[in-house]
């Protein structure tokens, strides 16, 4: 017999041998499976999935663990059961040849009951068959049909005891299904006794909330083992039953410091590099604030990097998204064609939240998506379903996070004010990064403003930016504040233009002044050169004048001496002698 | 009563009543059913039905093949259609009606 490593370790911890059902979630709730070689009672109203649960356990036993099984059908034609199972993709025809045996144990309507009876006929025949095929699992579906024929409570109990003893003796693990109709004292008593007798009781329920069906599974009792006591949401999906189980202690999420681009360079810059890989991003905003566009840029960037991405669209078709995003220059069609991108359009009203959840989860796994968008996640929040929707959306995001998938979810706000929307605020507690988009109405126009409300673990800008959509995609621009008002749109444009003109004017003015100063400087230097020349001229003149003067004085001296000599008024002085010697 | 050997009952010259009773050893219901069937057969003085008894504890595979769910089960194999009567046959009036037997006048109340 094969068991998974997980199961084996859990069995040891509980000291109760377990039989894995192979049903996602149920084995976790029961910490490894149903009690082996004992009996488990599955109770629930009609259409709750008792038969599917029992049959799936049998099929999984045969397929995954090589344990042959017997299905005793008291209520339905066993051929019909085999036929119905085909819709879950279980190939019973193949299994029936060796590992599964279906016993049609329906009472014929023309049968007459005259006195009390027991189940020994069935048990004896089944045991012979079980020994022959080495059956390990057996299903009795559904026992209440048979018990109601007895119409005698003490006898019912006796036969149930007989069945229980027989199971213990046969070495098979028994699954006994039983209908539980509300308000019937007979069934209530039978149910009470079944619950007492059984080693494990699994209750299935089915209710309708806001016209949407919701299924639940709850383990009520498990002798010798612990189990998760809360009711867990259950889905009968395309591959059978899946049970959603949230562990009390979530496994540690893979935490990454790596960034993924938002698809908008300036938004990356505002976040200090982009979203964290594997984080949960929430984008809130009123209708038309370009939430989907931010989703589109994120996905297009992911696909362009070569990653696989999934676009889960609530209440809008894939074609609409492709067209709408193409109008702002985001080409999803190319990525759809390449197969990297998958768009999954969900009609929220079509099925229950749990079904959506399971389908989406399966899709994330099968598509191996690394980036996922839920747009708008708030579609899950319909009036009256807020609590379950919150749970479902939280689980959805947790599931994605657990697989290291980066998710961007949008939430539509009826009111532009963040705080008034309860749902978004509640969803925001799971979000690592919360971006809020809003409109500002100014001068007769609406413009989109982007704010980062929070972003765990990263520095982020506190600035409001204007989100501008164009044919080339989305960009963020700075906003202007003037007189305490934030300017956007054409007012920003006007302001930009005015500022541009002003700049140009200033530039020209500066140029002109520079030119003037240059000219002035040139003029001054020219004047300086002229003055220099004048100074030089003066100096020459001074020099010339002083030369002339010396000459004149000398000449004057000679003249006087000469004159005196000529007048013979004086004796010839040595100097005069010398001078006058040649004469 | 014939032996517990399974198989089709021997063909009769005239269309008589062919019955098979599946029992589970000596369990109370089965014992009671055998006794009740004896009484019913004794009533049919001139035309006693052919009765075969099968013990499912001894012949479990036959019980499975024949689709026997509860014990005791009385099966009218002939005349057709096949009729199944479940239980200890304690309500003999019902059994007579189901098998198409003539009731004994002074036993009507039982």
Describe the structure.
The complex is a heterodimer of chains A (583) and B (110). By secondary structure, chain A is an alpha/beta fold. Chain A has 18 helices and 25 strands. Chain A has two domains: 5-243, P-loop containing nucleotide triphosphate hydrolases (Rossmann fold, 3-Layer(aba) Sandwich); 259-478, P-loop containing nucleotide triphosphate hydrolases (Rossmann fold, 3-Layer(aba) Sandwich), CATH 3.40.50.300. In chain A, helix 6 packs parallel to helix 8 (153-170), helix 8 (153-170) runs parallel beside helix 9 (185-197) and helix 14 (353-367) runs parallel beside helix 15. In chain A, strands 5-4-7-8-3-9-10-11-12 form a nine-stranded mixed beta sheet, sandwiched between helices. Chain A has a nine-stranded mixed beta sheet with strand order 17-16-18-19-15-20-21-22-23, with helices on both faces. Chain B has 110 residues and is an alpha+beta fold. A four-stranded mixed beta sheet of chain B has the order 2-1-3-4, with helices on one face. The longest helix of chain B is centred in the N-terminal third of the chain and has 16 residues, at 28-43. Chain B is globular, with a radius of gyration of 13 Å. In chain B, 34% of the residues are buried. Strand 6 of chain A pairs parallel with strand 4 (83-86) of chain B, so a sheet runs across the interface.
């Amino acid at each position: 017999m094969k068991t998974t490593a997980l199961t084996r370790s859990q069995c040891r911890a509980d000291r109760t041998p377990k039989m894995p059902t192979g049903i996602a979630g149920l084995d976790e709730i029961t910490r490894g499976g149903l009690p082996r070689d004992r009996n488990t009672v599955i109770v629930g109203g009609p259409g709750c999935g008792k038969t599917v649960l029992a049959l799936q356990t049998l099929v999984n036993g045969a397929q995954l663990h090589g344990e042959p099984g017997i299905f005793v059908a008291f209520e339905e034609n066993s051929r019909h059961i085999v036929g119905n199972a085909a819709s879950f993709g279980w190939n019973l025809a193949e299994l029936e040849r060796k590992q599964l045996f279906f016993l049609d144990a329906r009472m014929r309507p023309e049968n007459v009951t005259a006195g009390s009876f027991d189940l020994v006929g069935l048990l004896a025949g089944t045991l012979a068959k079980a020994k022959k095929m080495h059956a390990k699992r057996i299903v009795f579906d559904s026992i209440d049909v048979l018990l109601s024929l007895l119409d005698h409570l003490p006898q019912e109990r006796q036969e149930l005891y007989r069945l229980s003893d027989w199971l213990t003796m046969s070495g098979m693990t028994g699954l006994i299904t039983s209908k539980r109709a509300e308000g019937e004292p007979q069934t209530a008593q039978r149910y009470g006794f079944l619950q007492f007798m059984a080693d494990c009781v699994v209750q299935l329920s089915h209710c309708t909330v806001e016209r949407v069906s919701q299924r639940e599974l709850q383990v009520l009792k498990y002798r010798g083992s612990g189990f998760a006591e809360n009711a867990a949401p259950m889905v009968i999906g395309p591959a059978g039953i899946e049970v959603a189980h949230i562990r009390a202690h979530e496994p540690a999420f893979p935490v990454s410091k790596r960034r993924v681009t938002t698809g908008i360079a300036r938004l990356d810059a505002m976040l200090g590099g982009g979203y964290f890989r594997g984080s949960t991003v929430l984008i809130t905003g009123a209708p038309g604030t370009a939430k989907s566009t931010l989703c589109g840029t994120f996905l297009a960037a992911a696909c362009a990097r070569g990653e696989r991405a999934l676009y889960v669209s609530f209440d809008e078709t894939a074609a609409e998204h492709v067209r709408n995003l193409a109008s702002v220059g985001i080409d999803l069609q190319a990525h759809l064609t390449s197969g990297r991108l998958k768009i999954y359009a969900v009609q929220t009203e079509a099925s229950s939240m749990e079904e959506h959840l399971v389908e989406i989860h399966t899709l994330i796994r099968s598509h191996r998506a690394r980036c996922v968008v839920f747009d708008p996640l708030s579609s899950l929040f319909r009036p009256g379903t807020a609590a379950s929707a919150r749970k479902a959306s939280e689980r959805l995001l947790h599931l994605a996070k657990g697989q290291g998938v980066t998710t961007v979810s949008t939430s539509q706000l009826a009111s532009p004010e963040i705080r008034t929307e309860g749902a978004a605020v509640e969803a925001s507690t799971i979000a690592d990064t919360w971006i809020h988009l809003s409109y500002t109405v100014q001068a007769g126009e609406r413009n989109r403003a982007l704010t980062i409300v929070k972003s765990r673990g990263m520095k982020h800008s506190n600035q409001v930016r204007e989100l501008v959509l164009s044919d080339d995609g989305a960009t963020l621009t700075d906003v202007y504040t003037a007189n305490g008002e934030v300017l956007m749109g054409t007012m920003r444009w006007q302001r930009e233009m005015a500022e541009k003109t002003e700049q140009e004017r200033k530039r020209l003015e500066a140029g002109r002044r520079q030119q003037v100063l240059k000219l002035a400087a040139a003029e001054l230097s020219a004047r300086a050169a002229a003055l220099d020349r004048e100074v030089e001229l003066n100096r020459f003149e001074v020099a010339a004048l002083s030369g002339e003067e010396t000459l004149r004085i000398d000449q004057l001296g000679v003249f006087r001496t000469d004159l005196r000599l000529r007048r013979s008024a004086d004796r010839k002085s040595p100097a005069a002698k010398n001078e006058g010697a040649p004469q | 009563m014939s032996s517990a050997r399974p198989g089709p009952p021997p063909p009769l010259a005239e269309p008589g009543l062919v019955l098979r009773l599946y029992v589970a050893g000596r369990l109370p219901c089965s014992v009671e059913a055998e006794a009740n069937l004896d009484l019913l057969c004794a009533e049919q003085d001139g035309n006693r039905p052919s009765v075969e008894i099968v013990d499912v504890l001894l012949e479990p595979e036959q019980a499975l093949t024949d689709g026997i769910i509860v014990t005791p089960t009385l099966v009218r194999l002939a005349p057709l259609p096949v009729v199944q009567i479940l239980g200890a046959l304690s309500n003999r009036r019902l059994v007579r009606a189901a098998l198409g037997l003539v009731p004994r006048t002074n036993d009507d109340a039982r």
